[in-house]
Design goal:
301 residues, alpha+beta, Gyrase A, domain 2, 3 domains, five-stranded antiparallel β-sheet, two-stranded antiparallel ribbon, 12 helices, flat
Length: 301
């Protein structure tokens, strides 16, 4: 169960007592406020608070650029201009605070984005819940033979069953031993900060994660990408759906220029110009490495 009864009661109470405000409000985001969007088997993402909307991006840009923005016909055009030309500061005027429940190994990937304020559940002070991420069978895969940090073919039959059983039994045994070691129920045992070292990386933790829209877009560009690890990608996809309702114009520009666009190197541009001129270009005379050429041809043929 992703939400505890206490958390659900808190959400119901908060949503039952709305207050009038003079600050900018995004109707799309209001629909998400406090609601938990379930992710994986026990995880969730929920919006705790936010600041700003599409209009806040425009407002900040017009303060910064002044008369120069009068050439832009409307707010949508200005936001697309900002995204197209990598003007990041106006997007930093919007912020969001999320409550996320996620496996520890996903959290360790996530925390590499060092552009947010984070406060995580402390296993020094509290006892961790017996909740582990156990992949569905379709997400059990062997190591990729072409990518050292990716997955290959999906495990089948007896091999999938064997791996699942190991994951489940190891998680349960580790937690049993964690409970047995704790200083509780009259035994001296270990302090919580020491007993936690025996817990597996697939146990769930929780944190509050606050960031601005510019850095959130950077997170989504990397983690909502099809090449990202599935377990963090589904969190990014859940967040992306929320952001699409929060700042629809900015998110549309982000999808167009960042998620749907590509960045070309000087060598790639030169190759395209030669191709357009009718020249046949090979990897050997392109000036690109084999890896660069492979990525180039995956897009351009």
């Amino acid at each position: 169960m992703p939400l505890t009864p206490e958390q659900q009661a808190e959400i119901d109470a908060l949503r039952a007592t709305p207050r009038a405000t003079l600050r900018a409000v995004s109707e799309g985001m209001e629909a998400h406020l406090y609601r938990a969007h379930e992710v994986l088997d026990h995880g969730f993402v929920r919006v705790i608070d936010y600041m700003g909307d599409d209009a806040a991006i425009v407002q900040a840009a017009r303060v910064s650029y002044g008369a120069g923005t009068r050439k832009v016909n409307d707010d949508s055009g200005l936001i697309r201009y900002l995204m197209r030309h990598w003007h990041s500061t106006p997007f930093e005027m919007c912020e969001v605070k999320l409550h996320v429940k996620l496996p520890i190994f996903v959290a360790r990937q996530w925390i590499r984005h060092r552009t947010a304020n984070v406060n995580e559940y402390s296993a020094r002070y509290s006892i961790m819940d017996r909740e582990f991420y156990i992949p569905a069978a379709e997400h059990l895969a062997a190591q990729s033979t072409v990518n050292n940090q990716g997955r290959g073919a999906t495990l089948q039959g007896d091999e999938a069953a064997r791996v699942l059983e190991i994951l489940k039994s190891d998680a349960a045994r580790s937690y049993d031993h964690y409970e047995e070691m704790l200083s509780q129920d009259g035994q001296q045992g270990l302090a919580r900060e020491l007993a936690r070292m025996n817990l597996p990386a697939n146990i769930y933790t929780q944190w509050y994660w606050k960031t601005d829209l510019h850095n959130l877009f950077h997170f989504l560009r990397l983690r909502a990408d099809p090449h990202a690890q599935y377990e963090i990608r589904v969190y990014a996809e859940a967040i992306a759906r929320v952001v699409a309702d929060w700042v629809p114009v900015a998110f549309g520009a982000f999808e167009d220029y960042r998620m749907g666009g590509v960045t070309l190197s000087a060598k790639a541009i030169a190759v395209l110009k030669r191709r357009l001129a009718g020249e046949t270009v090979t990897q050997e005379d392109s000036g690109m490495s084999k890896g660069e050429w492979r990525e180039f041809t995956e897009i351009w043929g």
